[in-house]
Design a protein that fits this description.
Structural class: mainly alpha
Radius of gyration: 48 Å
Number of helices: 6
Shape: rod-shaped
Helix content: 55-70%
CATH class of the largest domain: Alpha Beta
CATH architecture of the largest domain: Alpha-Beta Complex
Strand content: under 5%
Length: 154
């Protein structure tokens, strides 16, 4: 096996400082269990990382991103887009309207039940109060000279 030199890797990563940073990141990744893309051949992790960079079996852009992420102390949190904010506001408004509608609907149902109950009671009273002509004919004759204050015992 031919030894890899820094000159082999400088062709792939022109800046030597960046090459050292990227290869050390890859060596750390290998040390933490990342799969190898070349044979180990009794080499240490930094040499394997340089061989992978020289053979272009790893993505340099991905290594740069993971290096930057590893060195960041402040991780930028993604803020929701304007559209997402508008959608969330609309959903909140719809849920509030839904609650209002539900309470209004409940009140209307209770009122209609009360009205139906009153209507049913009134209908029952009118049905009891209504007397057909046949029923009137069946009633006994009343004497016109009848005195309700008359007491038979006197």
């Amino acid at each position: 096996m031919a030894r890899v030199t820094v000159e082999d890797c400088v062709i792939k990563v022109p800046n030597r400082f960046e090459l050292v940073m990227v290869s050390s990141q890859r060596a750390r990744d290998i040390g933490s269990g990342a799969p190898l893309t070349v044979e180990k051949d009794n080499d240490k992790n930094p040499v394997i990382a340089l061989r992978e960079i020289a053979d272009e079996t790893v993505s340099i852009e991905e290594l740069q991103k993971s290096l930057v992420m590893g060195l960041q102390k402040y991780v930028e949190v993604e803020e929701p887009e304007d559209e997402e904010i508008e959608i969330m506001a609309a959903e909140k408004e719809l849920s509030e309207l839904d609650k209002q509608f539900a309470s209004m609907l409940e009140e209307q149902v209770l009122e209609s039940l009360a009205m139906e109950g009153a209507e049913e009671a009134a209908e029952a009273v009118t049905q009891e109060a209504e007397v057909t002509e046949e029923e009137i004919d069946e009633l006994p004759e009343v004497d016109d000279d009848f005195d309700p204050d008359f007491d038979e015992e006197e």
